[in-house]
């Protein structure tokens, strides 16, 4: 169990439902049985559009980071699973992020929907999930978009400790609004939406956090991977700073890589999202049509 108490789970799922009310258009919801457990999947966007799988970040709710891709909904059929073992409606059993488990989990979802290959996008931890798929089933990926991704450069412990450890520790000790604002500001360079900050506050205080990231991807693992890849980085990202991320990504992807870096934190501001969606849309027009 990842929740401190059943009423906390109920409250987090209520926050999930309230977030979905902010989306325009019809949202279909389905539970898919995978070898790792039951997975809740949101389906939305263009009904007859080409499929685009989107994986959310760790220690947040699926709709939070799914909202970052709203500019793509009109053109693509979106499949957005709640990552198994994370807050949301999927089973709470966590799976190993360092082996092929997430690749197999994703493959189970693709098989359920009869999708041989498609475009993928992932935010932070979700980017690491896409990279696990690239390592074991590269033929499944037509093109990929990785936003402030895990799985490429090491977690920046020094920078994170400097910016987040004190306010995070104080928040867990006394549930102070001032301290959660400091944590949210560090994660977003002062631009986190109020609704996101409230959800983060609940999860950080009352949910067992996921600390294990998808393993760092190696060049050898991507030997068979030949799909165009767009990476979007944050110059003020407290977890995966842009400079370190590019240093690892450039030799990893070579001429497959398209690179964008914005002056944002791990969570983008609204004006960053507008630019991000323009860049993602252009990338998919080039590589997924």
Keywords:
alpha/beta, globular, 289 residues
Word description of this protein:
The protein has 289 residues and is α/β, with parallel strands linked by helices. The chain is 41% helix and 18% strand. The chain contains nine helices and eight strands. The chain has an eight-stranded mixed beta sheet, with helices on both faces. Strand 3, helix 2 and strand 4 (76-81) form a beta-alpha-beta unit. Helix 3 crosses helix 4 (125-136). It is globular and about 45 Å long.
Q: What structural category characterises the helix and strand content?
A: alpha/beta
Overall shape: it is: globular
Figure out the total of helices: 9
Task: Give Rg in angstroms.
Answer: 18 Å
Give the helices and strands as they follow along the chain: HEEEHEHEHEHHHEHEH
Largest sheet: 8 strands, mixed
Quick check: average pLDDT?
91
The low-confidence runs, each spanning 5 or more residues with pLDDT under 50, are 158-168
- The percentage of residues in β strands lies in 15-25%
Percent helix, as a range, is 40-55%
Strand order in space, largest sheet: 1-2-4-3-5-6-7-8
Give the N-to-C terminal Cα separation. 42 Å
Total number of strands:
8
Chart the SSEs and their pairings.
Layout: H1 6-20, E1 28-34, E2 37-45, E3 50-55, H2 62-66, E4 76-81, H3 101-113, E5 118-123, H4 125-136, E6 141-147, H5 157-174, H6 177-188, H7 194-206, E7 229-234, H8 242-253, E8 257-262, H9 270-287
Parallel strand pairs: 3-4, 3-5, 5-6, 6-7, 7-8
Antiparallel strand pairs: 1-2, 2-4
